[in-house]
C-alpha cells in the first residue's frame, strides 16, 4: 500500500513563511525586553538598520522605508524619545539634520544580532542544522539577493 502525498494549498506557503518570521521577531523582542530594551518594537529594527552607522536624513529614511517624510519624522521622534537615535547638524552641510544612532541604538542592534544567532541555533536543534542550512539555501534561490531591502513597512501599506 502506497501513501499518497497531497500538496498543501498554495496560500499556506506565504502564511507559513510569515508565521516563521513572526515567531522569530516575537521571540527576539521578548528577549530584548529581558535584556533591557522593553520598549523596542519590530518596526524599530527596520528603522535603525535603515539609519545605519553613517546616519541619514528624514527624507532619505522615508525613501528607504517606502514611507513619507512625515511618517519617517514621527518614527524618528519616537526613537529619539526612547533614546535610540539623536538628531544633529550634518558636519558636511550645516543646513541638513542627520539622524544618528545613539549608544543605546547600537546596543539594541548588537543584542538583536546575537539573539538572532541564538534563535537560529534553536531552530537548528528542532529541524537539524543541515535541514536549516538547506532551507536557508532554498530561500536564497527563490528570493532577491538584496537581503537588506528595508521597505517592508511601506510595502505593507502600499495599495
Description:
It is built from 7 helices and 2 strands, in the order H-H-H-H-E-E-H-H-H. The protein has 159 residues and is mostly helical. The protein has a two-stranded antiparallel ribbon. A hairpin with a 7-residue loop joins strand 1 and strand 2. Helix 1 crosses helix 5 and helix 5 crosses helix 6. The longest helix has 25 residues. It is elongated, with a radius of gyration of 19 Å. The mean pLDDT is 90.
Considering the chains and any ligands shown, give keywords for the structure.
mainly alpha; HTH_MarR-typ; 2 strands; MarR family transcriptional regulator; 159 residues
Quick overview of this protein structure:
The protein is mainly alpha-helical. Helices cover 63% and strands 6% of the residues. It is elongated, with a radius of gyration of 19 Å.
Shape verdict: elongated
Question: Radius of gyration from the CA trace?
Answer: 19 Å
Mean model confidence by pLDDT: 90
Largest sheet: 2 strands, antiparallel
End-to-end separation in angstroms reads 50 Å
User: In total, how many beta strands?
Assistant: 2
- Fraction of residues in β-strands: 5-15%
Structural class by SSE content = mainly alpha
Number of helices: 7
Helix content: 55-70%
Spell out the helices and strands N to C. Answer: HHHHEEHHH
pLDDT < 50 runs, ≥5 residues: none
For the biggest β-sheet, the strand order reads 1-2
Organism: Microbispora amethystogenes
Pfam families: MarR_2
Protein name: MarR family transcriptional regulator
Amino acid at each position: 500500500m502506497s501513501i499518497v502525498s497531497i500538496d498543501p494549498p498554495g496560500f499556506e506557503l506565504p502564511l507559513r513563511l510569515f508565521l516563521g518570521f513572526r515567531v522569530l521577531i516575537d521571540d527576539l523582542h521578548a528577549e530584548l525586553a529581558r535584556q533591557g530594551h522593553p520598549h523596542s518594537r519590530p518596526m524599530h529594527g527596520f528603522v535603525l538598520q535603515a539609519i545605519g552607522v553613517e546616519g541619514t536624513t528624514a527624507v532619505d529614511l522615508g525613501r528607504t522605508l517606502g514611507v513619507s517624510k512625515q511618517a519617517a519624522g514621527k518614527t524618528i521622534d519616537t526613537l529619539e524619545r526612547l533614546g535610540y537615535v539623536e538628531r544633529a547638524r550634518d558636519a558636511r552641510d550645516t543646513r541638513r539634520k542627520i539622524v544618528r544612532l545613539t549608544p543605546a541604538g547600537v546596543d539594541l542592534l548588537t543584542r538583536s544580532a546575537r539573539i538572532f544567532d541564538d534563535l537560529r541555533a534553536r531552530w537548528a536543534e528542532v529541524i537539524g542544522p543541515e535541514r536549516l542550512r538547506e532551507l536557508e539555501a532554498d530561500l536564497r534561490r527563490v528570493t532577491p539577493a538584496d537581503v537588506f531591502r528595508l521597505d517592508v513597512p511601506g510595502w505593507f501599506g502600499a495599495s
